[in-house]
Amino acid sequence: MPVQTTENKAKGGGCYCGAVRYAISERPTVKGQCHCRACQYIAGGAPQYFMLVPVEGFSWTQGRPVTYTRPDLDTAVTRHFCGVCGTHLATFRQDSSDVVVKAGTLDDPSRFAPHVAICHAQAQPFHNVPDGIPVFEDLPAR
Ligand SMILES: [Zn+2]
Ligand SMILES: [Zn+2]
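^ thats the input. predicted complex w/ zinc ion below
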């Protein structure tokens, strides 16, 4: 980590209904899939597919998301959703200068491929991990 990627830098995406959109102008530093229980809630049971993008390379370009931060957790992340359709677009962590962008919201998710699986200790028996990528039981050390 970080896993290097080679695709073009300019990318964008948005929510299911189109009310909220974003642009990405920096290359992602990590592409992965997270198997944690929180991600399972948000992704409909699946692992969540995500990219880490430096905050300076991420911007909202249309509409503004609503946010949710769990009040009962000291290190809670802040999740950004479309307030109209509910699509989870991005997560901001207190301890990181990267935005966690959800791969399913990219305009072209077909260009995404996970290079690492994290929080696998919480994976469900029906979760799959691509052959040959590193698997971390928890969050990898930064
Ligand atoms: Zn929406
Ligand atoms: Zn997770």
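The chain has one domain: 11-122.
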